[in-house]
Amino acid sequence: MAAKKAEQALVDQWREMLALHARTQCELDRALHQHGLCGSDFEVLDVLSGGSCAFRVQEISERVHLSQSALSRLIARLEKDGLVERGLCPEDRRGVRVTLTDKGRALHGEVRPVQRAVLTKMLSD
């Protein structure tokens, strides 16, 4: 009986985490939409803003938890919007490196406080 209760508590905790993630993601998407972004867009910009160098697509995908194909489509859209640039990786000509443009860096700076405020509101309970 105790093992069954412990198992149910574990499942309940997992479902609470999923629900919190879903609510937070919806709130982020709502807040970022007025800036022309969704949560995943911002995550890519945020990762890229963390350094002065370019990131390989694979390095970004490990940090934003998107599949390689979903991330490639997202990067293509961000590139079309002038927020990022793609270029060949000098050490591996098959690889692609992604960097923020000045426009992308400016938008990230403008939207970062919005994203952080949503995280504070949703995760400070």
Topology:
Elements lengths: L1 H32 L5 H11 L5 E2 H8 L3 H13 L3 E6 L2 E9 L1 H22 L2
Antiparallel strand pairs: 1-3, 2-3
Helix pairs in contact: 1-5, 2-5
What do you see in this structure?
β2 and β3 form a beta hairpin. 69% of the residues lie in helices and 14% in strands. It has a 3-stranded antiparallel beta sheet. It is an alpha+beta fold and 125 residues long. It is globular, with a radius of gyration of 18 Å. α1 (2-33) packs across α5 (102-123) and α2 crosses α5. The longest helix has 32 residues, at 2-33. It has 5 helices and 3 strands. The protein has helices spanning 2-33, 39-49, 57-64, 68-80, 102-123, and strands spanning 55-56, 84-89, 92-100.
Q: What distinguishing features does this structure have?
A:
single chain, 125 residues, alpha+beta, three-stranded antiparallel sheet, 69% helix, 14% strand
Please give a quick description of this structure.
This protein is 69% helix and 14% strand.
Our estimate of the beta-strand percent is: 5-15%
Number of strands: 3
Low-confidence stretches: none
Order of helices and strands: HHEHHEEH
Q: How far apart lie the N and C ends?
A: 31 Å
Percent helix, as a range, is 55-70%
The helix-and-strand class reads: alpha+beta
Number of helices: 5
Mean residue pLDDT: 91
The gross shape turns out to be globular
- How is the biggest beta sheet arranged? 3 strands, antiparallel
Lateral strand order in the biggest sheet: 1-3-2
Gyration radius over CA? 18 Å
